């Protein structure tokens, strides 16, 4: 059973949106905290000075009533703490002293001062941990000393955290719902493609309608390209079956007629003649089947597995196999080639290509003639030529002979008309092309295969 897909592009896009939203909020929070810290660091001393001024003012008013003065300072401290908490911060720790005539009139320390080392009350100057301000009122012999912790170590209070987190908690559910709706709507064209393909029958290879969306266009184009290849392959298979049936019909009819003649013949000579014609029909049918199979393999869409081969050695081996047929007609096959020519090739298709070129050359060459096979190379390509001394092919028909089952008019030699079609397809699979030209002194035919070096270099392996 096929496992269901475990990943979702929709969820990926949705969570990516959530991650961006969270990152943006954290970035904003970090920026706000940084700005607040900078403002606090810049204005800490000014705040300390302002609150010291408040204390001095109250001391001038209530210095003669110590009890009332204590109550006023306590209320002042309460208001100071309240103001900081309303802004979302814990109030900074302070130490306050009010002196009159050299006598300590009032001393106040924040309860939180125990959390950190207190200031040196005998050292009347700022240090790394504490800001310090000193104000005097000579007319009443008053002296106000105030220490405040250096900004930078303060923490958000609950109000401050709520100020920054409340918008997130309120907005995230709404934004998540909105993102879900928008992404679902955005993915709708993609979801429509699946049913368009799944609901088709195996025979329906029509192209999908073009997509108006830039993101989906490559997907639709890729599917349409695959469908086009399937249509082409289906058409080739259909044509192959029709051509095979047509080409096998004649030799099979010959076999049947000669088999009937052999079965009903009482004359030994007639029986021998029927037996010979039957054997020729079987050979023709066998040759046609082999050619059809070679053509089918050379037209297949599978990727060829190439490996290092010596084209000279391969050509020499194919000449040895063809020499038996050449000897029957007293045809000499000569090879002109370097000692070795290592290339990146597919052995079966290249062997089929050479066999068909040699077979055609032997078949159409007159007896006691010569076939010249030559291999050469230059900086751009490797060439394989097979030249015979036969009747040749008229120039207007040299392109047409590459069509399947095409045979030249008034041709007496038996054949299926598939040889050069196989050669052309095998050459195409190696990135090569086949050219036909007149032989030496305009006599015969010279078939030349030219393969670019870029398609056959050993680096491809």
UniProtKB/TrEMBL annotation:
Domain of life: Bacteria
Cellular localization per UniProt: Membrane
Stretches assigned to the HAMP domain: 184-235
Chief location bin: membrane
Topology in the lipid bilayer: Multi-pass membrane protein
Reactions catalysed: ATP + protein L-histidine = ADP + protein N-phospho-L-histidine
Name of protein: histidine kinase
The enzyme's E.C. designation: 2.7.13.3
SMART domains linked: HATPase_c, HisKA
Keyword set includes Transmembrane helix: yes
Keywords in alphabetical order: ATP-binding, Kinase, Membrane, Nucleotide-binding, Phosphoprotein, Transferase, Transmembrane, Transmembrane helix, Two-component regulatory system
Residues of the Histidine kinase domain: 243-455
Transmembrane segments: 167-183
The species this protein was found in: Roseateles asaccharophilus
Record PANTHER family: SENSOR HISTIDINE KINASE YKOH (PTHR45436), SENSOR PROTEIN QSEC (PTHR45436:SF14)
InterPro entries given in the database record: HAMP_dom, HATPase_C_sf, HATPase_dom, His_kinase_dom, HisK_dim/P_dom, HisK_dim/P_sf, Sig_transdc_His_kin-like_C, TCS_sensor_his_kinase
GO cellular component: plasma membrane
MF terms in GO: ATP binding; phosphorelay sensor kinase activity
